[in-house]
Amino acid sequence: MTDVTADLARRFARALEQLRVSHELQYVSTRPLPEPDHSAIPVIPVIDDVHDAAPEAHASTSASQPEPSAPRSPMVPPSSRVAASSEASPREPDLFTPAPEPAPPAPEPVLDEQDQARRRSLREAAQRWTPAEKLEYLRVHNVGDCQRCPLARTRNRIVFGVGAAQADVMFVGEAPGADEDRQGEPFVGRAGQLLNQWLVQLGLSREDVYIANVLKCRPPGNRDPRPEEVDRCSPFLQAQIRAIEPKVIVALGRHAGMLLSGREEMTLRAMRQGRLYYDAGVAKGDAGAAKGDAGAAKDPASARVLIPLVVTYHPAYVLRQEGDGPSPTTGRASATDMVMTDLRRALAIARGNL
Ligand code: SF4
After folding, report:
1. How far is the CA of 227 from the centre of ligand 1 (A)?
2. Ligand 1, atom 5: nearest CA belongs to which residue?
3. Predicted TM-score of the model (pTM)
4. Residues with CB under 6 A from ligand 1
5. Mean pLDDT across the chain
6. CB atoms within 10 A of CB 218
7. Distance from Cα 20 to the centre of ligand 1, integer Å
8. Range with the lowest mean pLDDT among 44-58, 182-196, 198-212, 235-249?
9. What 3-state DSSP class applies to 291?
10. Using an 8 Å Cβ cutoff, are 174 and 256 in contact?
11. By the number of CB atoms within 10 A of the CB, which of 2, 39, 236, 345 ranks highest?
């Protein structure tokens, strides 16, 4: 044995001794270890907590190159992401397909010549109708059992309007309340009684004026009208105004004033002091000035009929301020005083004195 071989044998013996010590004196064979059997090692699924995907999804891809992950969005729930990265589940909504285009609006009904002729003659006849006949046609045939907005489901009765069809002064409130909804007539509760008192002070009665609301049905709980309700219902009021052709319109409350003047930015105080008009649209024939020039005026530039609009407090507001008792003497004008000033101005306009 050469020195080199003897040296190697000593080193090996030392290493073997160290192995015995480190392995608690168990036998360690000097034979080479067998090759590992990879087929016996179970595949451990890798949980990718970043992608938050289900183990099965990864198990299916662990043996090959991983599939590119689906685009991630905080709005998409994890289950949907898995479906998008593997295969779409029939129950999951397909979040990546654009929504279908809305259906085109239904085409206007095609009127045959007979229908068109009938409509033309009805329109021509309507030009000759009295205001009362126009209002009645509107009430029966146009408003009818109106279902144009959701208020139809909660109302008891439609509150169309009441008074003289040829009135010079037309009062417009915002919407019916509980009493009006029960009786089908505008301004019949305590607020209506106060309005009657104001009219008496002016030497008028309910039969001398016309009273209506912007909305014909009561909003539940007397909440403010919604824009879509006003949008749906206001054509009826516009038609009433066209039929009556008042010389002046009195809006009761800020909402009615705002809706009739279109001046959403104005406070009620500003509307009371301003010079406002209701735009009744383009004149047909001489309709706008049929009652003389005292009230309705034509805008010369466009031939639009502009009806003077006076805005004042709603009687319900005055009742809340003053109750049923006499006006408090505070040195300032009471709400009732201010209303009477506004109503006298409206009457003066109607009589051609302003
Ligand atoms: S509020 Fe006007 S539009 Fe709405 S259901 Fe009543 S009448 Fe029709």
Report:
1. 12
2. 152
3. 0.65
4. 143, 146, 148-149, 151-152, 158, 215-217, 229, 232-233
5. 76
6. 24
7. 98
8. 44-58
9. coil
10. yes
11. 236
CA-215 nearest atom, ligand 1? 1
CA distance between the termini of the chain: 140
Pairwise pLDDT comparison (83 vs 96), residue with the higher score: 96
Contacts of 94 (CB under 8 A, 6+ apart): 88
| For residues 162-170, average pLDDT | 97
In sequence order, what DSSP letters do the residues of 29-61 get, joined into one string? -SSPPPPP-GGGSPPPPP--TTTT--HHHHHHH
State residue 250's pLDDT score.
98
Closest CA to 302 of 325, 273, 330, 281: 281
* Ligand 1 centroid – CA 105 distance (Å): 22
Q: Closest residue (by CA) to atom 6 of ligand 1?
A: 217
Kindly report, residue by residue over 307-321, the tens digit of the pLDDT. Answer: 999 999 999 999 998
Give the mutation target among 139, 148, 155, 214 for probing the ligand 1 site: most ligand atoms within 8 A of CB: 148
Give CA–CA dist 350/353, Å, rounded.
Answer: 8
- Nearest residue (CA) to ligand 1, atom 3: 233
Atom of ligand 1 nearest to the CA of 147: 5
For 25-56, how does the pLDDT look when each residue is reduced to its tens digit (9 = 90+)? 444 444 444 454 444 433 333 333 333 333 33
